[in-house]
Amino acid sequence: MLQNNHELKSKIDQLWDKFWSGGISNPLTAIEQITYLLFMKRLDDLDQKKQANAEWVGEKYTSRFSGTWIPPEYRDKPSADSYAVDKHTLRWSEFKRMQAEDMLQHVQTKVFPFLRDMNGAESHFTHHMKNAVFIIPKPGLLVEAVKTIDEIFDIMERDSRDKGQAFQDIQGDVYEMLLSEIATAGKNGQFRTPRHIIKLMVELVRPQLGHRIADPACGSGGFLLGAYQYIVTELAKKAGAKNLPVDEDGFIRTSVAAGLTENAQAILADSLYGYDIDSTMVRLGLMNLMMHGIDEPKIDYKDTLSKSFTEEAEYEVVMANPPFTGSIDKGDINEGFTLATTKTELLFVENIYRLLKKGGTAC
User: How far is CA 75 from the centre of its chain?
Assistant: First the structure.
């Protein structure tokens, strides 16, 4: 993690302070807004990278920022074309140069709706952006946030070059550090499981490459990430990696890329499944895994205790820290459950048991 990188830590603290003084004091709301900005930045960076790679090898690449975009509300109008927006202006690298008032209006009315409208089938994240709301209220706060996020990315790039640590590992650490702030914002039992406890649980279940792994109440995705990091580390060791550094939570730090063939990366990306009933947490979980190098995470908005969730005997490993408070309406409970209770902590135990394949492991 970033405890030893004081420059990055202080930039992240600055970002929090700016949101706090800008009138967004709920950590969960602040991190959601920061997440949207990080997504905009990441989208532009990845697009430019793909474009440069394509040019380097002489391949054709169509940028997602080429052409025009018509906001959904104008598409049925006879003069729809007059509302077309040049997609190039929706790039982070373009709108960040605007004057404060113009930038806020542009991001609120064009960039953010464009993100929400990006082909819903294309990724879980854009699909779950449909209900997202952009609520940064002041032009000054947006300008400061954009500037600070740029500075954070610059430090990450520099650290990646100088210290030889993979960029996506540093990027993942930055997001984990942002998420650690919401530990104080636990509501409805949404507390992040401390990383050293995740580490202990992952070591007990020892997930392997090829296992299907699930968390039926995944929050910001900590267990899925723990499983991912454990598998990557084991593969790196098998590939002969020596003297791997350990972070302050006891996790061995290995580059996500170390020892991972393209095939292994594809298998791993297809192995992790998370579900949550809070759409904010679903977005944070998706972003958390994306920031750690999983481009298409499989985290979904679902109540895994309800009738609508019918999965059974699907997973080799289930890890969870389900809510230990609350109850569910009797009429909503999955009829396959045998326990005559509405207490969610008991229903989750039965649900986890049902989700396991024969011989599977839960923690």
Answer: 31
Residues β-bridged to residue 216:
none
Question: Does pTM surpass 0.85?
Answer: no
- Residue the block writes with tokens 């600070």: 148
Examine the pLDDT at 126 and tell me if it is beyond 90. no
Is residue 60 within 8 Å of residue 71, measured between CB atoms? no
Q: End-to-end CA distance of the chain, in Å?
A: 24
Strand order in the sheet with 298-301: 298-301, 272-276, 213-215, 315-318, 356-362
Which residue has 């909503």 as its token pair? 332
Q: Among residues 306, 316, 285, which one has the least CA distance to residue 351?
A: 306
Which among 309, 323, 321 has a CA at the least distance from the CA of 354? 309
Answer yes or no: is pLDDT of 188 > 50: no
User: Alpha-carbon torsion 99, 86, 33, 292, what sign?
Assistant: negative
pLDDT at res. 95 = 96
